[in-house]
TrEMBL record:
Gene designation per UniProt: rplF
Keywords: Ribonucleoprotein, Ribosomal protein, RNA-binding, rRNA-binding
Assembly and binders: Part of the 50S ribosomal subunit.
Primary role: This protein binds to the 23S rRNA, and is important in its secondary structure. It is located near the subunit interface in the base of the L7/L12 stalk, and near the tRNA binding site of the peptidyltransferase center.
Entry GO CC: cytosolic large ribosomal subunit
InterPro entries: Ribosomal_uL6-like, Ribosomal_uL6-like_a/b-dom_sf, Ribosomal_uL6_a/b-dom, Ribosomal_uL6_bac-type, Ribosomal_uL6_CS
Domain of life of the organism encoding this protein: Bacteria
Name of protein: Large ribosomal subunit protein uL6
Entry GO MF terms: rRNA binding; structural constituent of ribosome
Occurrences of domain Large ribosomal subunit protein uL6 alpha-beta (ranges): 11-82, 90-163
């Protein structure tokens, strides 16, 4: 049995969980999220916990057990606390600005790159640091990855957009001819 799948998901106060035929909806102070149900997995609300069980011990049911529990846990955590990713823009003259729902990146191209944020995602820029906020963990990570893809950090000088906790492996440049 899945160690993660066996753990119940605690429902904090202020969070409402609705289990339908084909999906689970979670509403909280930071928004509402939903995820589809799998036919091999049963979800029940028992007291102040969400319990995830599987219908049988098939390979597919075992694979989905821990996954669906983790998705539900991330949804509950997202509507209560939210998720964030931090990016750093490193390079001479590189800047980042947030204008409404658009992130404007000046990262060494001849033009500024404008990145529109999807619904449910917010951004805040402080100097060369950019923080992405949201209640959907997958969407926050996807937006951060797309912004990083605009100018990946290069290994020689370390210039580009990187995650705050990322370590860039540096390479030695050309060596002088003797």
């Amino acid at each position: 049995m899945s160690r993660i799948g066996k753990k119940p998901v605690a429902i904090p106060s202020g969070v409402e969980v609705t289990i339908g035929k084909s999906q689970v909806d979670v509403k909280g102070p930071k928004g509402s999220l939903s995820t589809p149900l799998h036919e091999k997995i049963e979800v029940k609300v028992e007291g102040s916990d969400i319990v995830v069980t599987r219908v049988d011990d098939s390979r597919l049911a075992r694979a989905q057990h821990g996954l669906r529990r983790t998705l539900l846990f991330n949804m509950v955590e997202g509507v209560t606390k939210g998720f964030q990713k931090q990016l750093e823009v490193i390079g001479v003259g590189y800047k980042v600005n947030v204008q409404g729902d658009t992130v404007v990146l000046n990262v060494g191209f001849s033009h500024p790159v404008e990145f529109r944020l999807p619904a449910g995602i917010e951004a805040k820029a402080e100097g060369t640091k950019l923080t992405i906020f949201g209640s959907d963990k997958q969407l926050v990570g996807e937006v951060a990855a797309r912004i990083r893809r605009v100018r990946k950090p290069e290994p020689y000088k370390g210039k580009g957009i990187k995650y705050a906790d990322e370590v860039i492996r540096r390479k030695a440049g050309k060596s002088a001819k003797k």
